[in-house]
Specification:
The structure is a homodimer of 126-residue chains. Helices cover 29% and strands 39% of the residues of chain A. Chain A is built from 3 helices and 7 strands. In chain A, strands 1, 2, 3, 4, 5, 6 and 7 form a 7-stranded mixed sheet that branches. In chain A, 33% of the residues are buried. Chains A and B meet through α1, β3, β4 and β5 of A and α1, β3, β4 and β5 of B.
Chain lengths: 126, 126
């Protein structure tokens, strides 16, 4: 059975796939020109194409891989949300991501919920 | 190391524990008088004590158990967020929950992200 939220989930998965493709251009192209990013939630948002390019240019220098922990949930509106772990070179970061989309399927907003205690050092093997 | 977001995570866990305690009174007491609930996201919110009592009175009639799938993440503000599965009598509902708290630790807002496709029938054993 197809329900409207399956589109939201597919769009969220497309964003995750773009991140793991490690192309900032591909990721940024998924966003509206006037989109906002609040990452982490509780800090001032990044607004608009130029700031979003700067954000992902820096982020993709550090992120090795995004591991989805729970498949995206939909909503009865324009949002999808999911739990993921970001793998950095010697740390992991546990996050809840919330994306909203416009009618064209472009990302209107991205919010990433994580706090200081969600960033964990990986034990070295020796 | 204690960080400010540990308080947010503990408050979120307290809400989950209250739900699993299955006392609507205990759950409702965690909310501010003027709190809002948007569940599911994309539908009109429940506002204020009386509506929140009605919401949980009805919800706890249906919910058998809340299973946390990813431990609450914090934020740099007043929010915590986590992934969970709600067990109903013959269905499961997969959700991302976002809670915000005031300075006193009371819930200011609860948002639950789930769409039609997140509600899944459980196969009967025979």
């Amino acid at each position: 059975v197809s329900t409207p939220d399956l589109r939201l989930k597919a769009l969220a998965q497309g964003y995750i796939d773009a991140l793991n493709g490690r192309s900032a251009d591909r990721v940024v192209a998924l966003f509206r020109e006037d989109a906002t990013i609040e990452d982490p939630v509780g800090t001032p948002p990044w607004r608009g194409r130029a700031e979003i390019e700067a954000f992902y240019g820096s982020a993709l220098d550090q992120v090795l891989r995004v591991e989805v922990q729970t498949a995206p949930r939909g909503s009865y509106g324009e949002a999808a949300a999911y739990a993921f772990r970001v793998h950095l070179s010697n740390r992991t970061l546990d996050v809840i991501g919330v994306l909203t989309f416009d009618e064209a399927g472009l990302i209107r907003s991205m919010r990433a919920y994580h706090g200081p205690s969600d960033l964990v050092e990986i034990e070295p093997l020796r």
